[in-house]
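Quick one:
INPUT:
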């Protein structure tokens, strides 16, 4: 496992803002998994953290083949997690509505730009997502409906449902959409919980990613 700080931003009043990645296997950019991007995404942070633990064990057991490599970003918004706010505390902006970012723009635009610069070029991208509204729903994998979507690939996760979502204008600034623009096959993996840990749902998500990787 190789740990790397992929984005750092200095702060005058608290510790520096850092986004860390964890890379497993070989040098190829096979899959990137990104978890928490919003401060209340506790389940998504837990899933990504458990994914790090699982991939570390796979690496120690020699289960990565050829040059394939997987990168996990467990938390892309530690400040909002620390203060318990869903969006950026200073201006209530959403990092996942700022991609591909702008390195001379507002704070969340610069964070998005710094992250996106490092996660371009992967063959597959998986975002451990939370639903934007409360409710009870089944865990599933979701794709943007474009001229190039591949539902057969999405079925390899083995989730109960594959949902195709027709993009609307605000989707053009999400990570999933921009991954696809830069030729990464992107998927959003939804668990039933957000603000509290659902271990059964987390185990389902981890198993789904492992099935896809196999």
């Amino acid at each position: 496992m190789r740990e790397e700080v992929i984005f750092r931003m200095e702060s005058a009043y608290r510790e520096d803002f850092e986004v860390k990645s964890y890379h497993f296997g070989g040098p190829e950019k096979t899959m990137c998994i990104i978890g928490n991007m919003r401060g209340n995404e506790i389940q998504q942070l837990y899933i990504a953290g458990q994914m790090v633990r699982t991939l570390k064990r796979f690496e120690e057991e020699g289960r990565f083949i050829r040059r394939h490599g997987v990168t996990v970003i467990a938390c892309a918004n530690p400040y909002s997690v620390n203060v318990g706010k869903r969006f950026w505390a200073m201006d209530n902006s959403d990092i996942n509505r700022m991609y591909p970012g702008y390195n001379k723009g507002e704070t969340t635009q610069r964070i998005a730009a710094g992250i996106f610069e490092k996660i371009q070029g992967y063959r597959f991208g998986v975002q451990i997502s939370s639903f934007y509204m409360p409710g009870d729903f089944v865990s599933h994998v979701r794709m943007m409906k474009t001229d190039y979507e591949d539902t057969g690939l999405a079925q390899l996760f083995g989730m109960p449902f594959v949902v195709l979502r027709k993009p609307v204008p605000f989707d053009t600034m999400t990570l999933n959409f921009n991954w696809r623009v830069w030729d990464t096959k992107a998927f959003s993996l939804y668990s039933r919980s957000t603000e509290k840990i659902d271990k059964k749902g987390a185990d389902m998500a981890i198993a789904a990613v492992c099935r896809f990787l196999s």
